[in-house]
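BUG: 3D viewer hangs when loading the predicted structure for this chain

Environment: internal workstation, default settings.
Expected: structure renders.
Actual: progress bar stalls at 90%.

Input used:
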Amino acid sequence: MAKVPEWRWVTIAGFMMVIQTMLDIAPNGPWNAPSFTRGVIGLGGLCCLYIGWFRFTFRQSGIIPSINRWQHPEKSWKYVVLFSLFCVLALVLINSANLADSFPETTGMIVLLIASLAMLNGLYVGLVVSGPLSERSEEE
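Structure tokens produced before the viewer hung:
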């Protein structure tokens, strides 16, 4: 059996980098803008969180969740689409409850990007597995 790549430390580092975006502790950096430095560190944290999730979910290194890595794509593509809808709903609630001031300025844009990519991936897998792009519909 192949060795499962380490995902815990990458995930912890990702959480720490994302949490620091809520605080004002970043250095000025070479561009002399602490808010930009916080954003760069936060994006690095999101990348670490994604890599940790990928390693935990698929039990292998990599970054592309191709369909052949999914155990039950017929069922799990719906969960990916639901996650995407949850992200959009969370953004709507944050904006309607005037909580946007509690988060960094670009939070909405980044969460919407994550939601869009998850929706695109989930719908694509759904189309390939059980929709018009499936092998069964080609045989008919």
